[in-house]
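To: structure desk
From: M.T.
Subject: fold request, one chain
Message: Could you run this one when you get a chance? Sequence is below, nothing fancy, just the single chain.
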Amino acid sequence: MDDGTGNPQGFALFETPIGRCGMAWSGRGITALNLPENKDSATRARLVRLFPHAREAPPPPSAQRAIEQIVALLRGEASDLGSIVLDLDASPPFHRRVYEAARAIAPGATISYGELAARLGQPGAARAVGQALGRNRFAIVIPCHRVLAAGGRVGGFSANGGVTTKLRLLTIERDSTRLDGTAASEGGAQALGFDPAAAVAHLRAADPALAQVIDVVGPFRMRVDGRSSLFVALAEAIVYQQLTGKAAATIFARVRALFPRAHEELTARQIHGTSEARLRGAGLSRGKLLSLRDLAARTLAGDLPSLSEVHALDDEAVIERLTQVRGIGRWTVEMLLIFRLGRPDVLPVGDYGVRKGFAAAFRKRDLPSAADLEKRGQLWRPYRSVASWYLWRAAEPAFRLPGRQRSTAASEGARPTEAPVGPASG
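Reply: Done. Structure tokens follow.
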């Protein structure tokens, strides 16, 4: 493999928490990092267009180390990408200066195009800085996502996904810099509020059939995201209702991008003070707009409990309080209880994924009724959230019990009638 100048060159695709990225390299260092496209074939095609002589190959040690550092950063871990060697031979001198200055921006920090130009000693060159970053082939490693437009506006982002991807990267970095040793992303016992090992042991002993599911799925890896405010958690849940994850993420990013410093948390005051036309322009339906308005008004009026108050309430009290908000139903609050608060004993009997996983796990031809699930769930108390997580895993296409065919109900892939399947990776 040769790029025509004597430099061996190749590329590889690799898995990250935000999807499959692509990396190309030469004998002088990394030549490109491509964020996930809609399909692997599109990522490959982009890299081949950039480097016609490159061939897909296992990464050499230096590229593999870079991949590991990038994956760690995208997992929310502290990871210094400054040591990654880049091949910038094709970049103009001014672009190299911009890239060097951008690499000095710390994770979790942001500056404006004008501030970056001033660091270069050229305070009037904000537009030129933006153009250089728009041609950045080293996304994440040269962190152009940390550079914002004037006034804290999110600005543009040339990588696939645009502003949605930019905000996602900034959110990952923001959250990683403020988490302590009991980080929710680590999924530890303290973050969950219960001992996962004790929960799994209880389920194994209480229900031999569920124990078989646990054997197939493996360790309990549910993650609790306790980092957002209650308002943001509920606002996001409203936007995501009845949409694919990708479509909902795009709309939620557009809503956030309406406001300065969009990478910081959305607030009730921002939603309350923004015109209907602007919010609808971001892609919100009329119903979701009304729900967000109601949520914002109740939050500002103090009608909703704070996150600290929610922690002091039992599950049913949380459900009763939060379902007063327009557009927030029992299922939405159950997801918050499990995945935001780490409550151990929640069984969302109306969730399609749980019902589908139950049919697969217990070899049923039909999806169970809520009453059937509730009855079996008595065996799983006080760890029904953990049982639900395993049933979500059993609903995934790859799940197979040893020596058994999947049940008809589990393999049909019927569509949910009320809500999407629970989070696929917890």
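Reply (cont.): The chain has a mean pLDDT of 85. Let me know if you need anything else for the meeting.
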